[in-house]
């Protein structure tokens, strides 16, 4: 069931229900109802938000597919979204990474 899978993924990521609800931008009460299988038919939009907050694909939730162990941490996704929202380009972000690598090698 979808609710059981959401709960399993949330626990694997060491997230509280409150934290997942906040990251996904969904109501904690609705998330709780999903996890307890009181609500068995969540919307696609809800699943997209939860999957993104968990750093997994929707297929992982819907079909219980194992995720690649190199899946992106949700905190990194948040940082990338913040950078995009602030107007930072991919090139600027790459330049920062290269500078940081250079600086690290100078030590």
From TrEMBL:
Keyword presence, Hydrolase: no
Keywords annotated in UniProt: DNA-binding
GO cellular component, one term: cytosol
Entry annotated with the keyword Lyase: no
PROSITE patterns linked: HTH_CROC1 (PS50943), SIN (PS51500)
Domain of life from the UniProt record: Bacteria
Domain HTH cro/C1-type: 6-61
Alphabetized Pfam families for the sequence: HTH_3 (PF01381), SinI (PF08671)
Signal peptide (residue range): none
Protein name as annotated: Transcriptional regulator
Residue ranges of domain Sin in the record: 63-101
GO MF annotation: an example: DNA binding
